[in-house]
TrEMBL record:
Membrane-traversing stretches: 189-207, 214-234, 396-415, 422-440, 452-476
Natural source organism: Neomoorella thermoacetica (Clostridium thermoaceticum)
Keywords assigned: Membrane, Signal, Transmembrane, Transmembrane helix
Signal peptide extent: 1-28
Listed name of the protein: Uncharacterized protein
Amino acid sequence: MAKRLPLVTIALLLIMFTFSLPMPAALAGIGDQPAKDWNLQGDIESEKAIEGQMFNIASITFLNPATTAAAVTAAGPFGLLTVGAGAAAAGLAEIAKPENAIWENWPLGRYVFYHYAPDKYLGMVPTAQHATSAIGDMIANLIFSLSKSITRTSINVMVLAFHTDIVSGMIPWVSRGVADIFTNPQNDLTPVLLILGMSLLLIYSVFKLLRGQAVSVLGSLLIALLGVGGVFFFSANAEKLIGDFTRFTDSTAGLFLGAISSYTAQSQNTNISNPIDRGLVAAGQTAWDTIIARPWAVAMFGTADESKLKLTQDEYNKMDKSSFPAESLAKIQPGMRIDTLFLGCGGDARDAVADILGRPNKRYLLVVREDIDHGLHPGTMIGFNPANTLNHIETALLTLLPAIAFAILIGLVGLSIIVCQAVLAALLLVLPLALFTLMIPETGWTLASRYFRTLIGFFAVKLIYGVYLSLVLVIATSFTKAVMG
C-alpha cells in the first residue's frame, strides 16, 4: 500500500484539478477583497464566530491558562494555536490574516447559489415555479456547504500539520528530560551505562588483542569516546541542536511549497517573509480558488475572470439601493467587483443584487421592454435565473468530489507529519542511550546506526512531504493547463 500511495495521491489531485477544466485561469482570486472593508450588510464577525466553533482546530496549547476566549476569537481559525506558542504562533497569525487566508476571508454562508424571484421579470408564474426554484437552490447549497466545509477544514489541517511543531514545542521538555536522565548527579543511570559499556568494550578489546587486531581495538576505543562525549555534548546543547535542525528542515520544506506560488497562484500578494508560511498560503489559496471559488463564480456570473466582474454604470443606476444601510452606499460604485458586491450582502440587499445582476435584456427575454448593459458578464442573466437551479446543483456536486480528494490527500500527509513528529520527540529523548551503545563494538554500532537512520528519516518527514505536496500540486496544475491548451 505504501508503494502505491504516491500514485493514488497524484490521481486524486488530478481528479480535483480536472473538474476545474471548464473554468478560465484565475487572475487574482474570487472573494479576495478584504471582507472587513467591503461588507455591505450583515455582521460578518458574528457569522465568522459561529463558524469558528467548527473550524478552530484544537492543539495542546488549550492546556495553557493564558489562552483566553478573547484571544482565540481574535486569532481566527488558528486561535488555539496562536496564543502562547511562540514563533510558530506568530506564523499562524500571519497566515490567518484575511488577505492571506482567502478561504477565511468571507463567512462560508456568503458563498451561496441564489436566484431572483421567479415573478420578478416574468410576471405571473405558477406557484410551483417558486417552490421548484427554492428547493433547487436549497439542495445546491446543502451540497455546496459540504464542499466548502471539507475544503476549508482540509486547508486548515494542512496549515496545522506543517505548523504544529511538536518537536520545537517539546524541545525544552526533551532537553530537561535528557539532562535529568543522563547528567543528573543524583541519577545512577549514567554510571550504570558507563560501567556496562566499558565492561563489554574491555571484553571485546581483550578478545581482539589475543587475535592480534590492535587497530580494531583502537578504532573501538575512539568510537566509544566519541559516543560518551556525544552524550554529554548533546545533553548540554540539546535545545539549540534540535531547534536549529528543525528550523532547517521547515525552511527547506517551505521553499518548495513557496515555489508553486508563482506557478499556481502567481498574482496573490502574500506579505510573508517566512518560506513555509508563504508556501502554505500559496497552497491554500490555490486549493480554495480551484475547488470552491472559481466553480461558484462561473455558475453565478458566467466567468471567474475578475477583470470582467465589474458593476456597469447601467446596473448601478437601475439597482434598488434602498435595501442597503446608509453607511454602505458610498462603497457601491460603478466598476466595483460584483463578486464582492454579492458576497458583501445578506437579506434584502442580496435580493437587490440578484435582481439587477440577473435582470434579462430583450435579446435574452422577449417580454422585457428595456435593455440593461451587463458589460463583460452577461452570464449573470443565466446564473441568477430561477430556471437555472439545476445547473447550481450540478456545480455543487462537481465541487464535492475534488473536495473529498483534497481532504484525503491532506489527511494522509497531515496525519503522517503529526504522528512522525510525536515519534520523533520520543526518539530524541533516548538519543543519549543510542550514543552509549557506541561503546558496545559491532552489535552496538549496528543498533546505533539503525537508530540514527530512523531519527534522520523522521526529522526529514516534513521536508519530504513539503516537496511531495508541492510536486503533486505542480503536476496536477500542469496537467490542467496542458488539457486547457
